[in-house]
Specification:
single chain, mainly alpha, two-stranded antiparallel sheet, 66% helix
Length: 155
Amino acid sequence: MVLDEKHFAIYTPNIEVYICRFVTALLLHMELIEDVKQGVNMMHYLNTHPDHFTGAFYPFMISLLQTFGGLIAEALNLFMLSTRSSVADCITFYVAFRVLSSVDNIYAESLSDFVLKEAIEEPLIYEKDHKKTPFMQRTCLHKIIRVTWRLINLF
């Protein structure tokens, strides 16, 4: 359905538009879910290994922005696809949104003299279990990180 604001009418597109919306939403979801997973994984590492960081605020904010940036992009993608009324519009939006969502990856890959690039490309290795540190022994920020990580994992 598409809402026409001038005449306050709702138009229902044909089945081809619905199929195109579904396929492009699914393709963009598969692309964006990796950013969300990466943010949640960074938050989990920060939660599990607080002693590897001198300050946990900035790594927490980066992981939170990575996670919610992907979730907001996913919601925006679904909203914008639902307003497209033709197959050509859906495909055009898909290509444009795909390019916009990959700009940060293109920029990160273009950094040739970045010292920590090798460390970023390696997967995170968990040496501890997050359950071994009792909740009451954590700092206030790490309690917030733990609660945030648990809330995100509920969904």
